[in-house]
Amino acid sequence: MAYCVKCGVKLGDSEKKCPLCQTIVYHPDLPPVVNAKTPFPKEHEAEMKKMSLRFKLLIATLIVLLPTVLTVICDYSINSRMVWSGFVVSSVCLVYCLIFIPLFFQIRSVLIYLIIDFLSILLFQWYIAYSTGGTWFVVFSLPATCSVTLIVAAAMIFKRFTKASSLFISAVVFVLAGLDSVLIELLINKTFMNQVNFIWSYYPFVTFVVVGLILFLCDRNQRLKEKLTKKFFI
After folding, report:
1. What pLDDT digit, counting tens, does each position of 56-104 carry?
2. How far apart are CA 154 and CA 144, in angstroms?
3. Across the strands, what pairs with 3?
């Protein structure tokens, strides 16, 4: 029995590549074995994934359901109505949507997860604003959440539909994040202070833009780019 020289995983006699890191298997003292039994049976892989998914969904649902029900019962037994448990329930539902909802999908689509996260965050913010009688949802939360979502969506589009490198995409994201920090301070001051001024957004703006420019210059330097790719897999 052989082992991968790169990651150390156990290899079968029929393996020509490491199933974990795809390193080519080579043993000068042993001839290659044809039709040998592999230690990684393929026929059980799909079934194991289904069982694992069901188990994760069951655990996730129980983790969310039990404390949520107990919170509502405690709140209603003390106040004869729901006073504060709505905030707890909405927070737990938000965490459930952000973390556990992707487990329901067999298709690993980042776009679906992004849409779910965006809607979940918006609904949570709307509920908090509605419950507290605030008027900040439309003028602050909605544009702020949309701006962050657009930055993430832009990175996904660049990655999916262009040949841009990860360094270039990261540079664009950093520059957009710097601009977004200025927008968020503007929304905060206009919504909660009824004034338009800038106090702290200069610092993240300059920092993000400088980092973005550094990443852009690294992307333009082919030799440095190859070294970073080998070192950090970017």
Report:
1. 778 878 888 888 899 999 999 999 888 899 999 999 889 888 887 777 7
2. 16
3. 10
* Global confidence as pTM: 0.68
Whole-angstrom Cα distance, residue 113 to residue 153?
Answer: 11
Secondary structure (H, E, C), the chain: CEECCCCCCEECCCCCECCCCCCECCCCCCCCCCCCCCCCCCCCHHHHHHHHHHHHHHHHHHHHHHHHHHHHHHHHHHHCCCCCHHHHHHHHHHHHHHHHHHHHCCCCCHHHHHHHHHHHHHHHHHHHHHHHCCCHHHHHHHHHHHHHHHHHHHHHHHHHHCCCCHHHHHHHHHHHHHHHHHHHHHHHHHHHHCCCCCCCCHHHHHHHHHHHHHHHHHHHCHHHHHHHHHHHCC
Instruction: Give pLDDT tens digits for 113-153.
Output: 888 899 999 999 999 999 999 899 999 999 999 999 999 99
Tokens of 34: 């044809």
Burial (CB count <10 Å: 0-12, 13-18, 19+), residue 92: middle
User: Identity (one letter) of the amino acid at 201?
Assistant: S
Q: Are strands 10-11 and 2-3 parallel, antiparallel or unpaired?
A: antiparallel
In whole angstroms, give the CA distance from residue 181 to residue 209: 11
